Amino acid sequence: MRKLLEKWKWLWGSDRTKYYAVTAVFVLSVFFFSENNVIRWINTRFEISRQEEIISEYRKNIKEAGRRLEALGSDLDTLETFAREDFYFHEPGEDVFVCMPE
Predict the structure, then answer these.
(1) Tens of pLDDT along 81-93?
(2) How many CB atoms lie within 10 A of CB 78?
(3) End-to-end alpha-carbon separation of the chain, Å?
């Protein structure tokens, strides 16, 4: 028991060892145990990157929809083609045949 106490005193006897231990506890608490730890920070960064990719896709889709809307509003033939192809519109007396891919 006495040897154990001597080793303990030797371990904690130096000021550097105390500073190292306190620093290690602080670093562990910041990196792993706090509410805003490094692991959560890294996961959040990956989530932000994924969300930014989704936002860029939506912006591309909005630009494409704006171009289509511009084209549909300016030309009646384009509007008629769009209505017939996408919504199966037809004029009275016409037959509509829908071919579904297999």
Answers:
(1) 888 888 777 778 8
(2) 13
(3) 83
